[in-house]
Amino acid sequence: MSSPNRLKVSRDSTTGSGEADLLTIGALAERSGVAASALRFYESQGLIQSSRSDGGQRRYEREVLRRVSFIRIAQQLDVSLEEIRSSMASLPDGRTPTKADWQRLARSWRKRLDDRIATLEKLRDNLGDCIGCGCLSLKACALYNAHDAAAALGAGPRYLLGNSAADIDMH
């Protein structure tokens, strides 16, 4: 017995691809954990594609689930939709991406992820210490960031971002 959120359709017999399950927007939302409104937004932004049933309802190939999962994880990493779109543009149109396609995309993200991991490790290990933010609100700032010297390195938590007190030109 088929779920009410799935529609079985026959493909063109000349392609030899047989039958495939297409997902309704409700099924895709349920399976991906992404609201239907977000799926419609992703589609309007060109991140995913659907076809339409005879009644005009959206139908998604099963491979769209993987694309939505990628979008969801990338957004949790604070990656912009433009960056996501750019990365997804490397995936093929007109066919389901292969493992090799996904591995190529993953390799292109490796440095970004390694940098993010390093930043999170610094945050975990140093959050209790001075992070060179220039706040001057802690007693330790008088030692680690006297006279807000870290400001000379740029805005934000300079020591957490990779600078150290040794980077400050004291002359």
Major β-sheet annotation? 4 strands, antiparallel
**What percent of the residues sit in helical stretches (DSSP H or I)?**
40-55%
Distance between the termini: 78 Å
Element string (H = helix, E = strand)? EEHHEEHHHH
Tally the beta strands.
4
Number of helices: 6
Placed side by side, the strands forming the largest sheet appear as 1-2-4-3
Spatial shape: elongated
Rg calculated over all Cα atoms: 24 Å
Strand content range: 5-15%
Please state the average pLDDT score. 80
* Poorly predicted regions: 1-19
Structural class: alpha+beta
Quick structural summary:
By secondary structure, the protein is α+β, with helices and mostly antiparallel strands. It has 6 helices and 4 strands; from the N terminus they run E-E-H-H-E-E-H-H-H-H. A hairpin with a 5-residue loop joins strand 3 and strand 4 (58-61).
Describe the structure.
The structure is a single chain. This protein is of the alpha+beta class and 171 residues long. The protein is 41% helix and 10% strand. It contains six helices and four strands. The protein has helices spanning 25-32, 36-44, 64-76, 81-88, 99-126, 141-144, and strands at residues 6-10, 19-24, 51-52, 58-61. A hairpin with an 8-residue loop joins strand 1 and strand 2 (19-24). The radius of gyration is 24 Å and the shape is elongated. The protein starts with 5 loop residues before the first strand and ends in a 27-residue tail after the last helix. The model is unreliable at 1-19 (pLDDT under 50).
